Structures
1.
Amino acid sequence: MNITELFSLKGRTALVTGAAYGIGFAIAEALGSAGAEIAFCCRSEEHLKTALEGYSARGISARGFICDVTDEAQVAKMINEIGGADILVNNAGIIKRIPMTEMSAEDFREVIDVDLTAPFICSKAVIPDMIKRGGGKIINICSMMSELGRETVSAYASAKGGLKMLTKNIASEYGRFNIQCNGIGPGYIATPQTAPLREIQPDGARHPFDRFIISKTPAERWGEPSDLAGAAVFLASRASDFVNGQILYVDGGILAYIGKQP
Ligand code: NAP
Ligand code: GCO
């Protein structure tokens, strides 16, 4: 097999959850550009419509579904309509930035439900068909918070830490069926999810957290969703057939760096 074929996704079906915009959209675009047939989901009709226009404008043929990934019946219906997936990217996610002692159990559970239980639900739904097909790829979108904590993100860090271990467990339990389950751990990426952390201040200054992240990133910049494209194609392709249970951090060096001296 030549190197181009090794990274080709031609003839594969990829389902990317939460891919109406942000990281999911960029990953779906990359997988589509590598030849995969794209299916994606989100909860909002408006987001779905805009996303379909976006994929079409980029020459990507994508099928979009309204599906809340925390709802097992909706997930089963979507995967049945897709006809199964060779590649599943568990990308859909939310965050609630609340000091832990002020966070309700309901808010905590909602974050766990989307960021951890939903990847379980979606993975459980695709694995039986992947086994019948002779194998598959599951990619879980983890986080810096799979390794680190910080104020106000207790639910999110708990979910992303759990997602790292779910990744390792799926790899352990289903590797013998030629299913590879790996994670991508993005650093701080400029998307709607992190927009509040990058808001320009009333005096025109950059957000303090924005400046903090720049000081903690050797690349001295926020990541762009497109920075994740290569890692996603690699982990979705034959090139990673002997890679299993790994988290590939695409973080501009944050996890390696103590941070710039003030
Ligand atoms: P985002 O901009 O908030 O986009 C989230 C996407 O998920 C949207 O398309 C949203 O569409 C969809 N979604 C949310 N809840 C859903 C649900 N229950 N069912 C189906 N779709 C749902 O987030 P992002 O920054 O692109 O992040 C994507 C993933 O990367 C998340 O797992 C996040 O934790 C992770 N991550 C982000 C960063 C970062 O710095 N941005 C870094 C590391 C990891 P609807 O609202 O229409 O459903
Ligand atoms: C936050 C951010 C982070 C990023 C990402 C970092 O509030 O700290 O939202 O959690 O979303 O997960 O990898």
2.
Amino acid sequence: MQQNQNLTVVVTGASSGVGLYAAKALIQRGWQVVMACRDLEKAKQAAQSLGMSPDRYTLMHIDLGSLESVRQFVKTFRESGKSLDALVCNAAVYLPLLKEPLRSPEGYELSVATNHLGHFLLCNLLLDDLKHSASDSARLIILGTVTANSKELGGKIPIPAPADLGNLEGFEAGFKAPISMIDGKPFKAGKAYKDSKLCNMITSRELHRRYHDSTGIVFNTLYPGCVADTPLFRNSYPLFQKIFPWFQKNITGGYVSQELAGERVAQVVADPQFKQSGVHWSWGNRQKEGRESFVQELSEKASDDRLAQRMWDLSEKLVAVK
Ligand code: NAP
């Protein structure tokens, strides 16, 4: 399946789950992969365990929870002299059992800091590098999710609450203690994750609106399916970790293997049929054999241009980028 011998992709959080398998699938398509990870030894062992050839990938350190680390990553990446043809914002933390928020070095609630603010800064800094890609279809892909899209059943589940940024009151007030939620309301750990993923989908739409016409870069999100057995759920109740994959396999039919999820990410990054920009790709929530991709409509909250511009402006302030 070798197609793109000289193209380079950065994949964040490639040390496990969807990101690891996406890296493998992109290598199989002939890409060079920069595995942008916070634990390089773990990433190296994960790559070896899948038989990924060491001359096809480079390990580079990034802690997306730290804005300084994101800036250092971009510096190291540029010093490497590599071109950038695609960026995959995949890393995430899900900390549903926290009663009190954890904080990033800058003092921001950790799941929004990692999943949204770190990636928001990374996207802004690497935009210039993507502009210089020799590829006729440079792409910036962010992982979205069903639970942050109230157009779908999974996004309506009120446990602990659906994704909702309110009027961004928490961001407006600086997003530091005692503030822990984007809407400024009391801390709900599971909702903080959903809110961060809603920000991911809004960021992608706003990138498309601002930069697609002038740069030709393709900006998309995707939902790869319910990959119920990745380490994303490691901070959930142990019983949930046992039951959830079984439930998704046998009851909802929503279960997708890590390998298939990684393959879907690779398709959206590399394949010609995913050249359309400004959309959210999905394969639905019932996984039948040979399921085709389609453009999934997003919720009003994710499609509200006024909210998106305000979220963008406030995020710029929080990460100090202009
Ligand atoms: P995962 O196996 O836990 O992978 C998450 C990755 O993010 C790991 O490599 C992790 O690194 C990395 N990471 C976490 N915090 C980081 C930080 N501060 N700096 C750098 N890297 C960090 O989870 P996954 O299920 O593959 O999730 C990948 C993406 O898919 C996420 O964006 C998630 O929202 C999305 N998604 C997942 C599902 C699903 O059902 N699993 C469904 C829809 C969307 P360590 O190995 O060091 O922890």
3.
Amino acid sequence: MRHMCALAAFLLVPGCGDGGGGSVRIGVSDELAGRSAERDGYTKPLGAALRVEPARDDRGYLDQFATTFTSMTPENEMKWETVQPRRGEFEFGSADALVAAARRTGKRVRGHTLVWDQQLPEWVSEADWTPRELAAVMRAHVRALVGRYRGRVAEWDVVNEPFDADGSWTESVWYRVLGERYVEIAFRAARAADPDARLFLNEVGAEGPGPRARALRALARDLRRGGVPIDGVGLQNHTAIGSHPSRARLLRNFRSYARLGLDTAITEMDVVIPPGPAPRDGLEQQARAYADAARACRQARSCTGLTVWGVNDRYSWKGPGQRPLPIDVKGAPKPALAALRRILEP
Ligand code: G3I
């Protein structure tokens, strides 16, 4: 039955609810659903990356998410190692639970991420592929995952982090076997699976000038000119106090993509306050960094939203000691959250 379910999930035949892998349930009470932040509460979506374990087990975490944010990105639950751990066997239980919780609380959903060189299962990253085989495996994965959430995901990070810091192509299995065209294959498969989802190219460290930013813009330009179905570029904006990109710099970046006909989004923002004795005004510096990004996104019509990479410091991928998010380790809002709300509210 499990194989049939996996196959059914692959064929998207209803009746195999969680696509194998056991179902996960996040209990969103009617009361919480009723208290959830309204999508039109902000002029642009204010999102957070969500994790399935704390959403299921930590009421405070889920409450903070539901009442603060208006968009949800699964932090890890839609990645290849989770969704297709073995070839042809799909495990959608965790992603289903996060998408259901997001919809129950009226959130927009960003899908993350279809093709990346990290968090791949070994059957993908370690095999000796021919180009034809690997392209078929990629297309089947994208078709199954994007198809499953067709109509429920507003934006997909189709390809994540294609470049190294020096602007060279990351030597992923995708690039090694397929060359640069792996990007086009991924975008065309995603468009075919959900014609209405907005398709993004997502990168870290490309918020300001530099070789990676140049490489990303050149790729986006070439994809557009080549008729590849790309709609936007995600700038992750993982940054720190004292070195965050300014509003003006982000605005310049947004506008340079808008001239290519592309939307932009801040997709994974966090602002580290280095461990140790925080500068007296560390929280204020952090609030300024978030405020700069929010102002730039609000000002640029082509910026589709701002997502922070976690609900609170306790569950940040950076570790609570880096204090990177607008809600602290105890679930209390910081000056950064007040700044985001002030700038993004109508
Ligand atoms: O699932 C296993 C679990 O079974 C095991 O017990 C546990 C301890 O070893 O590890 C768990 O896997 C972890 C996974 O997150 C799920 O929690 C991995 O070790 C850990 O490395 C992985 O980290 C994620 C990281 O991507 C991987 O590169 C972070 O949570 C996630 O926030 C981070 O997100 C990425 C974006 O997707 C892309 N942009 C950069 C960003 C930060 O790296």
